[in-house]
User: What shape does this take?
Amino acid sequence: MDTEVVVIGAGVTGLCTATLLAQKLGREAVLCLEKAPHPGGTTGSDRDGRFVMDWGGNGFLDREPRTLEWIEQLGLTNQLVRANTAAAKRFICRNGVLHEIKAPPGFFFSPLLSVMGRLRLCLEPFIPPKKDNSPETIYGFASRRIGREAARIMVGAMVLGIYGGDAEKLSMTHCFPRMVAMERDYGGLMKALLAIRRKRKASPMGPPGTLTSFQGGTGTLIEGASAQLQDRIRFNTPVSALARGDNGYEVILPDGSVIRCRAVVSAVPAYAAAAFTSDFDAALSGALGAIPYAGLAVVTLAFPKAAIGRDLDGFGFLVPRGEGIRTLGCLWTSTLFPRQAPENMALLRVMAGGSTDPEVLDLSDEELADLVLKELTPVLDIGGKAEFIRIKRHEKGIPQYTIGHEQRLEAIEAAESRHPGLSFAGNAYRGIGLNDCVLSAERAFLRTLECLHRSD
Ligand SMILES: Cc1cc2nc3c(=O)[nH]c(=O)nc-3n(C[C@H](O)[C@H](O)[C@H](O)COP(=O)(O)OP(=O)(O)OC[C@H]3O[C@@H](n4cnc5c(N)ncnc54)[C@H](O)[C@@H]3O)c2cc1C
Assistant: This one.
């Protein structure tokens, strides 16, 4: 055997799996293979001494103990920063105006929705919970509970902001399992929110937990984990195929060289795993390849604060479809994490693209920057020039848990049972957030240990 375990992919998930395994089995027992010349996948940060610019995720909610434990294990706890409390305010752009999303009863007086839309939303506590287990889209769930207008304007915008996805295609159970549980356990969302607020005394409108990052951005996590693994990550090393070997697996590289190991964790996007498993297990490869992805562009802009007429007093804003604006949303980074920009500068992060507007990714950098500037200027009352604009493209950035995801997961889990010692981890399966990636890494870690112990 060349090594005990090969972890394929050095994004957050692969790095988390590899560091957990290295801590348990020793560094030499783990080898992480990464296609790119650097670690991180969709997570990373650029820094220029004044600004911190995250490539993908700009934080995680500090509600998942396993993430905080991993950060502690990496020795990074002292670098954590919680988002400014101003971040509790969130806005939706409708008819060119930013409307704050308010908790009831303030919500009822907000012009974000029409009077009919607000009245329909007030009926939510009286809507009976869904009785059967048939698959439901996010839009189906939301329009049933809060009405079509609120579903389109509020939920549709949120789904684009989080998943870059179409609420009419994504599966409610797989994207928002907590909300499904709220309906099931409390009989409705309002009833659940009030019960939870009583317990936590927190705002029911914000997500539970506080948005958290590092002084140096989420890339700190990638750098900390990579430093622990040192030469046990091999860069510019794409895996091209997988085969069964004596007492384990053969991981095959494009030059035909083979790495022999007892267990394999795939922590690459599902389409990449589909490619290297096509000759290994066609049913598995088919299920992996059927998970669609949406592309996203992250446009980071910096302006002198004096150039922005609107007070950036919150998290930022989302834009529902149908508003004639292609931007999906804009986060006010310098409000969220003030030390990620100089005091006199406003740092903004705009998302564009997603599954409802994939053509945005075909625009040149210049066209994309022009589009974003044209759309942001009236909304934020911008009266000056951007100091810089940077664009990061994620061609296949976020997996889409569409209806049918359950069957794909079942097929992948069945393949894991057919091939002891092979595990699939990452954002393609049971959650896309950084916390979900850590939980998925832990699952792969435990499965791998179990397999190694069984074959000892
Ligand atoms: C724009 C954007 C914003 C986001 N915002 C947030 C946020 O605010 N909060 C949050 O919690 N989450 C956020 N997310 C989600 C989160 O960042 C991702 O789910 C997470 O980074 C995915 O990590 P991963 O390791 O599973 O996959 P990836 O990051 O995709 O890593 C997979 C790795 O596998 C490598 N690879 C691919 N093929 C091969 C091969 N054949 N051989 C070897 N290596 C291979 C890739 O190069 C890559 O490094 C965001 C995502 C995006 C795109």
Q: What stands out?
A: The longest strand covers residues 293-304. The chain has three domains: 3-41+218-291+402-454, 59-64+71-101+205-216+292-400, 103-204. DSSP finds 15 helices and 19 strands in the chain. The pocket of flavin-adenine dinucleotide is lined by residues 8-14, 33-36, 41-43, 56-60, 238-239, 267-269, 272, 276, 296, 298, 394, 397-398, 426-427, 432-434, 437 (CB under 6 Å).
